[in-house]
Specification:
nine-stranded mixed beta sheet; globular; 9 strands; Rossmann fold
């Protein structure tokens, strides 16, 4: 059996996770990427859509779950996550102290991390926390560091969610590129760094946990995504794929073929396959966009502005893009 076969067939195995964690120590001092390069923030309605699709909803006991944000920036995902967590605490009669270990965000840039901490602190103060306690809790939940290295020693997560950086392989230093590819064997050819984030994220998932990202979709369609397709199809289930190539999904215009994906550490079931166009956006009033898209895919409703959707009941297998014709 080859090393690569061992990695894919036993990739969820504790022994393999520990081996990767040990290997990460050799590059623990590496500074590979940083803001502002690669920073593109998703709009709030897209963040809410992704959190809802992944099941991170205030009616659930979110303090009992462990959610990870791999690249927080200034808090585009982190702040809504904190807001939902605090509302969930109220609903489930939990004390504020239960928020301490429910969320963990990573961010390489110290300035962006500081801004994320400040915004999270503000949410905690609105909940009634004293300023010093709010800052203490927020600072304890934001790590200034590299998720691709830190996740290997982090605990298993129920949710890994966010918007990984848009950085091409040739914008990485030679040292960083080599280190990441050693740790994440799905990073082959001319793949961009988000491939490593997807692999790191799914490997961190606890049983039943979900990865929910908005990122480029070239890994689904191009040869450089073959190893990641192999890993995902062998060990995980794809729940949602929403193409957003033409949707106004980001605060700034991008041309990176963005797509929302939800991948769960579970058997493959049906997949919602959708497309968001130029008129996609939040629904009026209290209507929930994620629920509406799921109902559209299930043919329970016949219209959601800016969206088309269907449900595909088949398994995605192998490495060839033809097997992944979404």
């Amino acid at each position: 059996m080859t090393v690569r076969q061992t990695q894919f067939e036993f990739g969820l195995d504790r022994g393999f996770d520990e081996a990767l964690a040990e290997d990460s120590g050799a590059v623990s001092g590496l500074t590979a990427i940083g803001e502002p390069k690669g920073v593109v923030y998703a709009k709030p309605w897209v963040v809410d859509l992704i959190l809802d699709l992944a099941g991170y909803r205030l009616e659930k006991d979110l303090a009992a779950r462990y959610a990870v944000e791999p690249c927080s920036g200034e808090g585009a995902f982190l702040v809504p996550m904190v807001r939902r967590l605090l509302a969930s605490l109220d609903r489930h009669n939990r004390p504020l102290s239960d928020a301490r270990s429910a969320i963990h965000a990573y961010e390489l840039d110290e300035g962006s991390a500081a801004q994320a901490v400040e915004l999270a602190s503000a949410e905690l103060r609105q909940r009634g926390a004293e300023a010093s306690k709010a800052r203490e809790i927020a600072q304890g939940r934001v790590t200034v560091g590299d998720y691709l290295l830190g996740s290997l020693k982090d605990r298993k997560a129920d949710l890994v969610v966010g918007n990984p950086p848009y950085i091409r392989y040739d914008d990485l230093s030679e040292e960083a590129n080599a280190a990441y590819r050693r740790l994440y064997p799905t990073m082959i050819g001319r793949c961009d760094i988000y491939v490593g984030f997807i692999e790191a994220g799914v490997r961190q998932l606890a049983a039943g946990g979900a990865l929910a990202f908005i990122c480029a979709d070239r890994w689904i369609r191009a040869a450089r995504g073959a190893e990641l397709r192999h890993l995902v199809s062998a060990l995980y289930g794809i729940e949602v794929v929403i193409e957003m190539h033409d949707a106004p999904a980001f605060e700034n215009e991008v041309s990176a073929y963005p797509t929302v994906i939800v991948i769960r550490r579970a058997e493959q079931g049906g997949t919602i396959v959708a497309s968001a166009g130029k008129t996609a956006g939040p629904l009026p009033g209290e209507s929930n966009l994620a629920d509406a898209v799921m109902e559209l895919a299930g043919k329970r409703i016949d219209h959601v502005p800016g969206f088309s959707a269907t449900r595909v009941d088949r398994r995605f297998t192998g490495t060839l893009p033809g097997k992944w014709n979404l």
